[in-house]
Amino acid sequence: MNPNVPGIEQLQEIGLPAPVGYAPQTWGWAVLLGMLVVTALLASARRYWQWRRDRYRREALARLAELQSADDRVSALRELPELLKRVALSMPCSSLPQGHIGALGNKDWQAFLVRHSPQPLPADFSRQLAQLAYAPDATLRALPDEQCQQLFDTCKRWVERHHVAV
Predict the structure, then answer these.
(1) Domain coverage including residue 97
(2) Does residue 19 sit within a domain?
(3) Angle 165-123-105 (CA atoms, 0-180°, nearest 5)?
(4) CA 1/CA 30 separation, integer angstroms
(5) pLDDT per residue as tens digits for the range 111-134
(6) What residues contact 163, with CB distance under 8 A and at least 6 apart?
(7) What is the 3-class SS of the chain, one letter each residue?
């Protein structure tokens, strides 16, 4: 055994520092924490308000998905113009009163759809919607699958992304 190495009986306990609390030591941290909590509450309230406001959008997209997978293509295509009009009537803070939106047709309806769309719409979109609503069943059955898919995609894109003035 080496005489320069102390034995275990010579070890002493080291004094521990005083415990430190988790509470902030200055009032500035408490203010910062309060501001963060208020900001989080406001952000949560705004997100909840937006989620509730967009309920009509979620319901319209669900109905659009049902129509797209429906077996009866003619009745599904016939419901597209009505669905878009209902979405326009449900838009909060619309630029026109609801009674005026229901009466829009042709160029005014096209202008309304374009004004609230962030992406360009086909130039004859309102004419295509009018054709879906009023054309004979034989005409709708004769529509190519690509055109039907394009109509569904355009309607879905408009419902998902149309601009609502708040």
Answers:
(1) 55-161
(2) no
(3) 65
(4) 58
(5) 888 888 888 888 888 888 888 888
(6) 116, 117, 118
(7) CCCCCCCHHHCCCCCCCCCCCCCCCCHHHHHHHHHHHHHHHHHHHHHHHHHHHCHHHHHHHHHHHHHHCCCCHHHHHHHHHHHHHHHHHHCCCCCCCHHHHHHCCHHHHHHHHHHCCCCCCCCCHHHHHHHHHHCCHHHHHCCCHHHHHHHHHHHHHHHHHCCCCC
pTM given for the model: 0.72
Residue-level pLDDT at 162:
85
List the structure tokens of 115.
Answer: 């004004």
Identify whether 41 is part of a domain: no
Amino acid found at 27: W
Q: Is residue 138 part of a domain?
A: yes
Tokens of 42: 């406001």
At 34 the pLDDT is: 95
Structural domain total, the chain: 1
- pLDDT number for residue 93: 59
Give every residue of the chain whose pLDDT is below 50, as ranges: none
